[in-house]
Write a structure and sequence with these properties.
alpha/beta; 2 domains; Peroxisomal Thiolase, Chain A, domain 1; 330 residues; 25% strand; binds acetyl coenzyme *A
Length: 330
Amino acid sequence: MLTILGYGAALPARIVTNDELATMVDTSDEWIVSKTGIKTRRVCVDETLTDLAYSAACEALQRSSTDPGDLGLIVCSTICGDFTSPSLACCVAERLGVSVPAFDVNAACAGFLYAINAAAAQIALQTKIKSNFDGSAHGDSKKRILIISAEMLSKHTDWTDRNTCVLFGDGAGAVVAEPGGGLRYIKTYCFPNREVLYKADATSSPFASYDIPRGYLRMDGQRVFKFAVSKVGEMLDGMMNSMSLTPNDIDYFVLHQANKRIIDSARLRLNLPEDKFPTNIERYGNMSSACVPILLSEMWEKGMLKKGVRLFMSAFGAGLTAACCYYVCD
Ligand code: ACO
């Protein structure tokens, strides 16, 4: 399937503390920390989403010694593109000065794993038919794929709604991958449901028989919470059964950073130590699909992703989407 060669991340400079939010809505640092684990988040001020995505991409390219000309494909996941079209992937291709197939995936917080799945599918396709994803042999540098997850949830947030505005942040993570044996298992899911809604910014069409909604993110937090707690467990059980693994065979559980209590419930269910569940939610909040690749980049920087390290990754989000994978660092 696919092996990751390099990791990158980019965050906007502006830090928003819980105390600052308490001057904007009726909330407190104590409530936010105890209910979510979030202490600060980053928000874009001057940065565009393409800026963040490009910075994360450059770091992943540099860390994998990949020249942009070695890329055969760019896949982005986002629900916050600077434009509906061109896609974020096309905007990044333009910045990198490359002309390769490029497209976006919209799977909300599960988007990074959906993008990994799409990249792995492209690799599999290449072995079956002649597709425009260039290259031929394993290790051929033209087969390198840039996968970016970039989100600017600050632009979808209703900053007067305390139920949601304390939860989210902006950021981008990226990986460079190529055909290889690191990815051992991947599954993507959709459980259609409108408990999390991001309304489009479109204006009404004079031809539409209904009002096209305009507005912000709305969420039934408690129902999403229950969905997440049960699905993370089910996805892990499914992966372990299928791969004949036990929780002790996993070195790190790289989970979507939506709420520290969701991560803790997964950990307590498995009775595993906290250091197997790395987090960055306390610093960045929920950055939708960017959470997992940013966390991977931080783990790489700390030397945690050495050859042979076994990772279970999972995420869930609006859709409701969910995804998980088993990855062995190579
Ligand atoms: N500050 C103070 N009080 C608040 C705040 C706030 N920021 N937000 C809500 N409250 C209040 C509520 O109004 C409610 O008050 P009430 O009892 O008087 O009505 C009270 O706190 C309790 O609210 P609950 O909703 O019961 O709190 P809960 O324990 O469920 O925590 C939370 C809420 C943090 C949103 C939690 O449900 C959660 O994390 N859900 C999951 C969200 C998620 O995972 N989203 C991912 C999908 S989003 C995506 O795809 C990007």
